[in-house]
Design brief:
By secondary structure, the protein is mostly helical. The structure holds zinc ion. Zinc ion binds next to helix 11 and helix 13. Zinc ion (ZN) binds next to helix 11 and helix 13.
């Protein structure tokens, strides 16, 4: 810690670094909880995590931090330095938001979350929405209060105040104007595919032992550019990526012993998140906004690009098939680049969001966004959520939802009280589609380099354009700087239509 005579800026960054230490210890505890912890340890782990989050909150809302930020805003040397100015601007934004929420509201939300999560697990197991309904009603009410504390942006709505936590600068009306034309183009595309013969998954039923899959995935993820000396891959039920320090970015995946594509796609996704984290300038600025991801949407754009645009391409399979054969030997007999390319691009409506393909996935997100917005505005009673959900699944995906477990009770997000989070998944796909257009215009030989196992040109481009700036630019400004255009639904639509038209002979 610098002395009191150190400049306000040095004192500010010392506090941010100190907070990052606390934050990263909490992350390590939660990583351990998901991957290694024995079940009987959960009670004490909850206490440890609660202590860490209290310490984080105290540091985030300390009035001394507010004083330092005020002093930095007055300092022309700080304001004239782009890195320092970014850090002060973004730290001020974080501080203002954290201090707008009264402690009693934060405590009530945390307590409600843990009780509601238990209720949700039971309700989901019994497929009984009524049991979860009072908790969802409570979360909606708490989220309304939270949004009011944050304040509604001029001309905006309650939802905007919540969305700001995940996708800064984005507004619900704008999400709607991006999602509406996307939905109008995706629904006929998906309906046309449903009329065509289904593509058989050529990887199904091929026994690939999990330890061998792990070696295969480590080789693939390492070759893409995920630095495994500063990372690792572990199994979990719900895959994720977490950063525990400037040289410690870990991912997890889930395995199907009879279909290696599942773990592969999940690993490519999480490795995409990890490569973004590893591309932030954490050696110099760890804990500072300058070395923090721009938003959840931008984060998701990175995971989706490696999972979808790269990992579902023919060029990728031209390179990866021999590697798969080396690891899995006889289990790969008869598989070709073409059969794996086709198997990676199957479009089939599914009740479950996380099981869904690249095209139908977005319709799941739009449904959730609309429901959240309607619940928050009071235009949809929580009691009517299941009926609304099921109608929409029928309209958009042609599916009759058999029970709430496979319907509106499937996601953990609402039980945690997280509202405004869902749209960032599809926003990520949109950012990704647009970045992909630009990178292919600037680097026209990407396919050839993928087929040769050279992913460095793509990663270098992403590092330079998307990763390194951290939070220097707001997500939509970053998109416009990188691509020359405001965010649009069109690149993603064009990419999906052209790929799937060919794949399914539409
Ligand atoms: Zn993701």
């Amino acid at each position: 810690m610098p002395t009191a005579t150190a400049s306000a800026y040095d004192q500010l960054t010392a506090r941010l670094h100190d907070r990052a230490v606390v934050d990263s210890i909490g992350t390590l505890l939660s990583w351990d909880q998901e991957t290694k912890m024995p079940p009987k340890a959960s009670g004490y782990r909850a206490k440890q995590l609660a202590m860490m989050s209290r310490m984080e909150h105290e540091r985030a809302t300390d009035p001394a931090l507010g004083d330092l930020l005020a002093a930095c805003a007055e300092d022309s040397d700080v304001q004239g330095d782009p890195v320092k100015a970014t850090n002060v601007r973004e730290a001020r934004k974080d501080y203002d938001r954290a201090t707008k929420l009264p402690t009693e509201l934060v405590v009530e939300m945390t307590e409600t979350s843990s009780l509601a999560m238990d209720a949700w697990k039971t309700a989901r197991a019994k497929s009984d929405f009524k049991e979860f309904q009072p908790w969802l009603e409570k979360h909606v009410a708490l989220n309304r209060r939270k949004a009011e504390c944050y304040g509604i942006p001029e001309g905006g709505e309650l939802y905007d105040a919540l969305l700001e936590d995940y996708e800064t600068g984005m507004r619900a009306a704008q999400v709607e104007s991006l999602f509406k034309p996307l939905r109008e183009r995706l629904t006929p595309l998906i309906a046309a595919i449903a009329d065509k013969p289904a593509i058989e998954n050529a990887a199904d039923g091929r026994a690939c032992p999990i330890p061998v899959q792990r070696e295969f995935l480590n080789e693939i993820a390492g070759a893409l550019g995920y630095d495994l000396d500063g990372g690792r891959l572990d199994p979990t039920t719900h895959p994720f990526c977490q950063t525990m320090g400037p040289k410690d970015v870990r991912i997890t995946t889930r395995y199907d012993a009879n279909n290696f594509l599942d773990a592969l796609q999940t690993t490519l996704h999480e490795a995409g998140h990890a490569m973004y984290e590893q591309g932030l300038e954490t050696d110099t600025y760890f804990g500072e906004p300058r070395a923090t991801a721009a938003s959840l949407g931008i984060h998701e754009s990175q995971s989706r690009m490696w999972e979808n645009q790269v990992g579902r391409s023919e060029a990728f399979w031209a390179w990866a098939l021999p590697i798969a054969k080396k690891h899995f030997s006889a289990a790969m007999d008869g598989l070709t680049v073409e059969s794996l390319h086709r198997s990676s691009n199957i479009v089939k409506p599914h009740f479950i969001r996380v099981e869904s393909d690249e095209a139908t996935y977005n319709l799941h997100i739009m449904l959730r966004f609309d429901i959240e917005r309607l619940m928050l505005s009071g235009d949809l009673a929580v009691a009517d959520v299941p009926a609304w959900w099921n109608d929409r699944m029928k309209t958009d995906l042609g599916l009759d939802v058999p029970d709430d477990r496979r319907g509106c009770l499937q996601d953990v997000h609402w039980s945690m009280g997280a509202m405004g989070y869902f749209p960032t998944y599809t926003l990520g796909n949109l950012y990704c589609g647009q970045f992909w257009d630009t990178v292919n215009a600037e680097l026209p030989n990407l396919d050839a380099s993928f087929a040769a196992g050279d992913f460095a040109p793509l990663l270098a481009w992403l590092r330079d354009k998307v990763h390194t700036p951290g939070r220097t630019y707001a997500p939509q400004d970053l998109c416009e700087r990188v691509t020359g255009k405001p965010l649009s639904h069109e690149p993603l639509c064009n990419y999906l239509e052209s790929k799937l038209t060919e794949m399914y002979n539409l």
